Amino acid sequence: MSLSPHLAAFLANQPHPPKIEAPSTVAELAEILKEHSESHLGQTLWVAGNGSKLSWGNPTGSVDLLVSTRGLHRLINHAAADLTVTVEAGMPLMELQRILAEKGQWWPVDPLYPDWATLGGILATADTGSLRQRYGGIRDLILGITFVRADGEVAKAGGRVVKNVAGYDLMKLFTGSLGSLGIVTQVSLRLYPLPAAQGCLRGTGSLMVLEEFCQQLLRAKVSPVGLDLGLDGGEPYVAILFHGSERVIAEQMAQTRFLGEALHWQEEVKEGLAATTEVGRGLMTLQPSSTRSETVLMKFGCLPNRSLGILQQFQALFPGCWVQLHRGCGLGRAWVVNPEGGSLEQLQQHLKSAGGFLTLLEAPPPLKAALAQDLGPTGILMDKLRQQFDPARTFGLRLPVVSSDSLQSPEASR
């Protein structure tokens, strides 16, 4: 199996390339971890799927051993009648979607780098985008996990049924943990019927007019599966995604256009979405023109009712930037070319004072270190969790600044 471009670039920049293990069974993985915990004290182990987001979080020091789950890519069970599937964590998302599409189903997530993202990697980074407006975040779509602890012991949490008993929510802890608590080997997922069609409207206007439109739309009898407000090369836009039958989509689009009659609209409709690579893409997708090495990728969050002010800050500090803010929950992504550290710090402080956060996902290590936040009580809690799951500190510290998948429910944002 070929390496992702992101993983290849990471390995090329390492002063001492790490050893790479890609076990094909859970037993092999457990043995690797057991041996490492007993014989390689002080050596750092990192976890990856295809490595497309290996730089996310706050990695410290060099890596001695890189364990990839890409050899664990088998389908365990697809209970189509129950809308659930159990699959090994190294399976790429696009492969799973092709399997599910044969039964008219899909797993409704839209992470970055979908051609390389694995199921375990999506869980570990809590990475989904516009579709969370309708389907929720990653934790909402996970029913159960199997993972291997740092000492090589295999553990389980949850199950493959939609309803489960309440308890210690390990799925929530592992969502966004970036491989710092254990290695997820198997996931049970909540599925949805594949939409018959999708339509997308993209409107342009001033930020203030677009924000007023979003407020109207959230109060209207319209049910978009995605609602983004942002900047495309510095130019304000709003993008609304609909799923359903062609008739329902046409009605929803007509009502949306009526609410935003002052905006300039583009329209796109796709029918018969058997090719699941098209679901959630199209006019919703931003395409920054800069290369990966020139661009800083960040994740941010704010209270939804502070969206306008945050986007105005981006517009003033970083002309020509790309920002995708999911208006229903206040989470977003931004791409900025060669930003100044002072401007980033100013934005970070503004977000913090507004009850939000800013974390750099892909950036030069010195810049990422300069923008690292003091997590306060959250950081203390994370450290205690790591002490419970990995007392020997086998896994490299890659905990994100904010691992929760939402700040506020869409209903509260209205």
Automatic annotation (TrEMBL):
The lineage of its organism: Bacteria, Bacillati, Cyanobacteriota, Cyanophyceae, Thermostichales. This is FAD-binding oxidoreductase. It holds the Pfam family FAD_binding_4. It comes from the Bacteria. Residues 13-194 form the FAD-binding PCMH-type domain. InterPro entries: FAD-bd_PCMH (IPR016166), FAD-bd_PCMH-like_sf (IPR036318), FAD-bd_PCMH_sub2 (IPR016169), Oxid_FAD_bind_N (IPR006094).
